[in-house]
Amino acid sequence: MKTKQYVFFFGDGKAEGEASMKEILGGKGAGLAEMTNLGVPVPAGFTISTEVCKYFYENGEKYPTGLDEEIEKNLKELEKTTGKKFGDPKNPLLVSVRSGAAVSMPGMMDTILNLGLNEEVIEGMLGKGSPGEATTRVACTARFVWDSYRRFLQMFCNVVENIEHEKLEQVINEIKAKKGIKEDTAMKAEDWQEVVVGYKKVYKLEKGREFPSDPKEQLQKAIDAVFGSWQNPRANVYRALNKIDEKKVFGTAVNVQAMVFGNMGDDCGTGVAFTRNPSTGENKPYGEYLMNAQGEDVVAGIRTPKHLDALKEDNEKAYKQLLGVFELLEKHYKDMQDVEFTIENGKLFVLQTRSGKRTAAAMVKVACDMVKEGLIDEKTAVLRVEADKLDQLLHPTLQSRAKANFKLIAKGLPASPGAAVGKVVFSAEVAVEWKEKGEKVILVRQETSPEDLAGMNAAQGILTARGGMTSHAAVVARGMGKCCVSGAEGIIVSEANKEFRANDGSTRGSTLTIKEGDLITLDGSMGEVFLGSVPTTVAGLSDDFETIMKWADKYRKLGVRTNADTPKDAKTAREFGAEGIGLCRTEHMFFAEDRIFAVRQMIVAETLEQREIALKKIFPMQKDDFRQLFEIMRGLPVKIRLLDPPLHEFLPKEQKDIEALAKEMNITAEKLKEVVEGLHEFNPMMGHRGCRLGITYPEIFVMQVRAIMSAACEVAKEGATTRVARTENVGTGLVSVREKSIKPEIMIPLICDVEELKWLKARLVPAIEETMKEYKMKLDYEIGTMIEIPRAAVTADEIAVEADFFSFGTNDLTQMTFGFSRDDAGKFIKEYVKQKILKDDPFKSVDQGGVGKLMEMAVKLGRKAKKNLHVGICGEQGGDPETVKFCHRIGLNYVSCSPYRVPIARLAAAQAAVEK
Ligand code: PEP
Ligand code: MG
């Protein structure tokens, strides 16, 4: 019987794996196999599968039987393919060992290069081992040999043995200081040789044994370390931030691959390139490289790399070959690729390809262009744009005229677009701390590393002094959708003194010191840094964005409405394509300066008559509010929720306000204070709010429905509303619904029992009918309810008999299902997510396993009682892409979210519809 295969070979134009085996070979391994099969020049090697990693963690860090033999067999094959031998001083095989999970986790795990080096091999490479027998291919300089060896020792000590980087760095610094050397480039062969001796001493001191010289032992330890890196803190933070579910994609593969060298001389080089521009999406390769360097030098941002175009001059043959490879890869993968390459003695090798991370603007442009180029279809294009990232396009940019009034203190690379204003901080920890205190911060670093991830996430934007467009800061910021300026070489950062020096904005070249806490503004689209807080504007949307949205609308089945309480919100939402209002919180209209007095009078009234007087004052204001919403929405559905929050929220708290109100109402301040105190509640979220207010003070709800219906009648009479069609999911798909007239949707909050709804309807329906009679009009209207209390979800079949529609209030439903106060949960939810007790904050994304189950149950029960019951969601989660997709799956008719999230919801809805 054939045992399970754990190791997969690639080389010489053929591979045992292929792209479809990503889950077991990891993204990198699958890519290498696929490229090998395509005929791309890839150094040979083998991949140890993710299943070994899984086995390793499930079996107390042990490997499956037979693995050693499989590795040995593949190593032999590699020796045969390359014509070199592991540990052979005359013709040594050197390998790289790298991790590679099924999902891309750039910079998150570990790499060891030049493995296989030891003193004997070194001697051989230097041509000293056996007299007369210089090594074959690696006819290299002594400097290259010692530099390679110290790099290997450094990575091995760091990654495999966890020896602190600083201890090794100290060795180099001491040698540099002793010899008066500043830059690495000035280090000679003998200097690196001294570093090697120093590193080995550190190793012995730390580990109590000699550095392992047997290449096989080195390899085994490196494999152990890569599998071990799957659970290191950096990788865990990355997975948590990027919502990578370990249950779905567990483990990394290990790729062992023959080394090729970009640092063997001036006809060698290494680089990272995108087949299209990852910032703008322009269909022109974009990349960076360094001659005479090793791969890590480009991404680490230690030397600022050259633009890919310059490679044409440096090595035209390799440049042309590279462009050919780009074309081949794009045609094959039908997506923009991110390619790592090395040129060894003028010969091109491709080390990695993966789908390239890109900004939202690039995502949209590349998707549209690829449809035009016939590479992908519209549905694929819709799937290519990450809904969450659209935020970047809707976010502000700097007002160009305002810029002139601020000092431009530095210029760097436009690494990730957008604008960010914040206080300068110099460490990831401070960034996190200040963010938690409610501050907006800009993280300023010499260069970033994966350790800075949490700080980058907390910051509004990132500024680095070193590093190119493919540096860690740039790649990570783009992925996060954060504004970033990288490689601002004019600034001098002192992380220790918590300050940076920059040009003072004048032409005299004087400098200026910016300290922790000072305000700066970044323009990530231009690569500019300003002193102070520059005003911003919202970005204009491109034609390509409109095209993607058009396709999204073509394929989605869910309707998308907005939560809007003001004319401004309603207008913005319409511009973003909202198909109506899913929630208007009327209490927000009560807080306005000019009406709070009347509202307070309404609340403290002791008799019905007194209250009616106050309500009469409020009525015209409410009617006017609703008129404006109906006018802006021009016949699109408008769902208005009757008053919800506890009454005491509106009452005066300051003595001077109490006195003023008492005077206006002709009562004493003491009396008013008594009333205010009487309204105090211990747990207002579960107190006298929502429909409970309507039951104790029906006249308030009656006033509101009269205002709604009056506004509707007036606007309908003016005839502004007959032309608009709305599209919503009715049974099988999107249909256009032509509104003959305005059809107000009145929503009752916080129902827990059908009797509440019945009781209120018995009082509201007559008021509605009467109002229409006054206007001599007959409009269609609906009265429905929010489902935001678990009891309502459980008894949805009873409630549906009385309700024209349901709308899930998932803020309250989450609060009451979990028993987490929505106002206080912020204090502990983060820890729950960090400790993986919860996968995500349930107030951001609907908890599908609990709250979601209640929703699904309510939909089923509701529609059992009323077949075509119209159901939506209006909690904050309604704009979260995962929640939108969930709502599609459970058959909701629409989602409603804040105006800026409307395009995100439209796109997510389309993705839900076209995703398999
Ligand atoms: C909800 O509870 O989800 C909701 C939309 O209502 P509010 O946030 O106003 O309580
Ligand atoms: Mg609510």
Topology:
Elements: E1 7-11, E2 14-15, H1 22-38, E3 45-48, H2 50-58, H3 67-82, E4 85-86, E5 92-93, E6 95-101, E7 111-115, H4 119-125, H5 142-160, H6 165-179, H7 189-207, H8 215-229, H9 233-241, E8 252-258, E9 269-274, E10 286-291, H10 295-300, E11 306-307, H11 311-314, H12 316-333, E12 337-344, E13 347-355, H13 360-372, H14 378-384, H15 391-394, E14 396-398, H16 400-403, E15 408-411, E16 413-416, E17 419-425, H17 428-436, E18 441-445, H18 453-458, E19 461-464, H19 472-480, E20 483-486, E21 492-494, E22 499-503, E23 511-515, E24 519-523, E25 528-531, E26 536-538, H20 543-555, E27 559-563, H21 567-575, E28 581-585, H22 587-590, H23 596-604, H24 608-633, E29 638-641, H25 655-665, H26 669-678, H27 691-696, H28 698-718, E30 725-730, E31 733-738, E32 745-748, H29 754-775, E33 782-787, H30 790-794, H31 796-802, E34 805-808, H32 810-818, H33 826-834, H34 851-865, E35 870-873, H35 881-889, E36 894-897, H36 902-914
Parallel strand pairs: 4-5, 17-18, 18-19, 19-20, 27-28, 27-36, 28-29, 29-32, 32-33, 33-34, 34-35, 35-36
Antiparallel strand pairs: 1-2, 1-3, 3-8, 6-7, 6-8, 9-10, 9-12, 10-11, 12-13, 14-26, 15-25, 16-20, 17-24, 21-22, 22-23, 24-25, 30-31
